[in-house]
Amino acid sequence: MTLALINRHFWTDGAIPLTVRHVAKHVSRRGVNVVAFASDVRAEDSTESLRYVPVKFRRVKAFDLGGFVFAARLCHQLLAAHKRQPFDVMEVHDSTAFYGAWLFSRLRQVPVIMFMHACIFESGKRDMYPWSLALTYKINTRFYLKRAHCIACISQRLVEWAKKLGAPPERVRFIHEPVDTETFRPRVNGALSADCGNGWNGFPTSGNERNRFHPLPQSIDSYSPTLLYVGRLSPEKGAQVLIDALPQMLQRLPRLRLRLIGGGSQQPSLRDTVNQNGLKEHVEFVGAVPHHELPRHYAEADALVIPSLSEGLPKVLPEALACGLPIIGTQVGGIPEVVQNGYNGLLVPPGDPDALADAVVTLFSQHDLHHTLRANARPSVERFSWERNVGQFIQMYESVCQRIAVTD
Question: How many CA atoms lie within 13 A of 68 on its CB side?
């Protein structure tokens, strides 16, 4: 089987390019020939099982004009590459690029799968994009939902959105996005736990053994927990809500530290808020970091906070859990599908600084709860490893091809 894998970016840091790279890596190991179409790949880097086809474009934000240039050039490159090595199926991760794949599909009768990572119609997306870009993405979404041979949704919430917006129910498929459980593993005293896959997770949960690794403070005033945020600093991610909740957290946890990883449009205003409210000594703005450095930051933290107002399923969520980190997340998108309240994390309503502050204080003041959530974190996502779940991708490709063959 040969798969055409399509996204504007392949090597760029970001959640979707990372997913694309993982798909290419793991399905090619299972014998699928992959041809990756992206703007940042080089043909000379191709291997026997993974071929790269560069599709150049220049970014133009208004109405995503750059994306339409990419789509047009993509169709041309698909036609040329198909002559050399025919594809059995296409997988697209970019809504504007779908137009190029769809046109090629009409010309060569190759089925196309569209991955739905998020939904532009979610209320939390309202202020994320300029109006022209948001309008384009809304049109794109309705277009691909009605024309893709399969819509792969990374959360059940997105399945509901796809059907609500007009996708034929028989074409909508829930496919849990796997996590790299080899890279993201619990650490003990900075070292990788050798037993992380055997239920121990590197975080002992009983008696003196637990206290040796996580000594309990004599008082709440001497406890210095680190709360970690990883993501864009943009309105839909809820970072402003997190900063607004921080003063309430510090009333009960005076030595709490908040570390924010990521850049974005809100970073200057968030810094101003922190400085104006005298919170500078408690907040660290790290900025964007390479993805391979995240395990170290997870190891240095005591909990991950995801205060999002809108989500598909944030990649940092299963990664942090795989590292044994409990989650404090909002009840949006696919977050409640992974975070079980009181088992591997705590859930709060979106946009509520009071509830968020209460959850953080509860987690760090009730030490038995913190250790329980931490001990349950890794087991809650081990079943979602790439090794165990890459087969669902190949099964999806085969079922789409078989359905199209029967239709023809």
Answer: 11
- The amino acid sitting at 304 is L
Domain 2-178+385-407 in CATH 3.40.50.2000? The answer is yes
CA distance 37 to 21: 12
Are residues 159 and 153 in contact, defined by beta-carbon separation less than 8 angstroms?
yes
CA 401/CA 312 separation, integer angstroms = 27
Q: What percentage of the chain has pLDDT greater than the value 70?
A: 90
pLDDT in tens, 283-309: 999 999 999 999 999 999 999 999 999
By the 10 Å C-beta count (0-12 exposed, 13-18 middle, 19+ buried), 372 is classed as middle
pLDDT in tens, 255-283: 999 999 999 889 999 999 999 999 999 99
Residue 36 in contact with residue 12, Cβ under 8 Å? no
Q: How many CA atoms lie within 13 A of 285 on its CB side?
A: 19
Closest CA to 237 of 303, 130, 309, 305: 309
Look-up of token digits 């395990």? 295
Q: Phi then psi for 109, rounded to 5 degrees?
A: 55, 40
Spatial distance between the Cα atoms of 356 and 74, rounded to a whole number of angstroms: 44
- pLDDT of 220 strictly over 60: no
What Cα–Cα distance (Å) separates residue 11 from each residue in 17, 19, 38, 280? 6, 11, 9, 34
**What is residue 221's predicted lDDT score, i.e. its pLDDT?**
57
Q: Is residue 306 within 8 Å of 330, Cβ to Cβ?
A: yes
Confidence band for 100, pLDDT divided at 50, 70 and 90:
very high
> Superfamily for 187-384?
Glycogen Phosphorylase B; (3.40.50.2000)
- The domain limits of the chain are 2-178+385-407, 187-384
The β-bridge relationship of strands 187-188 and 191-192 is antiparallel
The reply to whether 2-178+385-407 and 187-384 are identical in fold is yes
Q: Per residue, what are the HEC states of 46-74? A: CCCCEEEEECCCCCCCHHHHHHHHHHHHH
Position 214: which residue type?
H
Cα 47 from Cα 324, distance rounded (Å)? 35
Whether the CB-CB separation of 331 and 261 falls below 8 Å is answered with: no
Distance CA 220, CA 252 (A): 8
For residues 34 and 50, what is the distance between their CA atoms, to the nearest angstrom? Answer: 5
pTM, entire model:
0.85
